[in-house]
Amino acid sequence: MKKLTLLSVAIFSTLSFSSFAKDCDSSLLPSWKDSLSKSAIVKFVEQTNDKQADTYVPVEDRIAVFDNDGTLWSEKPYYFQLAFALDRVKEMASEHPEWKTEVPFKSVLADDIKSVLSSGEEGLLKLILATHSGMTVEQYQNDVDQWLAVAKDERFDKAYTELTYQPMKEMLTYLQDNNFKTYIVSGGGVDFMRVWAPEAYNIPTEQIIGSALKYNYSYKDGKPTVVKDSSILTIDDKAGKVSNIQHIIGKKPILAVGNSDGDQAMMQWATSQANSMAMIVHHTDAEREWQYDRESHVGRLDKALDEANQRDEWVLIDMKSDWCQVY
């Protein structure tokens, strides 16, 4: 009887492994398991393409918007753009002796990240304004490009651009192949994302929307320049995402994908029409990435999670259960 039990376990284990392998062996969205979320994506695209059905959407109306931080790449332990700002503060410190005693700069120089984060939105905004303004757009983007070439995430020991989600990139490609126009609509800085996101996601710079500082144009000695100001043009978060989509795209998207309460407004707006869908990347994988939702200070998913559990057209993507691989 004992041998039979062991044999049964062995057979079950083999079957389980085979099933897992089969789930992850597909030419369509190969990094996705055969889950409800994958089925929802495929069904949505097929219905959108079916000219004989009332779910058909003309190509010119196939607009899909994606958040970036926590949706297309990781955002823990803190936003990668903040990591850039922290390194920039250290590089610029010799020019600003006052930072040795000024919050939150002194915390940055002391490598006291906990105090930096506890400085709240006001403190983090000070860091961004100090490190992202007073230079031409070209100078700023060159600094970002050089930083990305050498900076690495401490936990995974990978370049930040290697921490983009493979399943989400496959989803973007699948949508693009089916005549969707894909946009990034992120709280991250637009000039920061435009350095690397076009190559990472096959999304052109003009389809990247984000937070931005004001720009100052000048023309001197036959040379035009655009300098990043130290005042805010737009914060692309929450209701601000809806405003910027309307202002820049001019059409309501039929698909909105995010991961936090900051994306709730654009998901509500997108799904206020027929033949639409919203998706939420739910961070449930502590081993391969991070696990967080309601209590997180970064990428908090609380109210939007409640709404997703009440609406059929909002689909939760369970990172741990639905993805064969993360990066």
From TrEMBL:
Pfam families: HAD. Keywords: Hydrolase, Signal. Residues 1-21 form the signal peptide. The keyword Cell cycle does not apply. It comes from the Bacteria. Transmembrane segments: none annotated. InterPro entries: HAD-like_SerB, HAD-like_sf, HAD_sf. GO terms for molecular function: hydrolase activity. This is Haloacid dehalogenase-like hydrolase. It comes from Vibrio fortis.
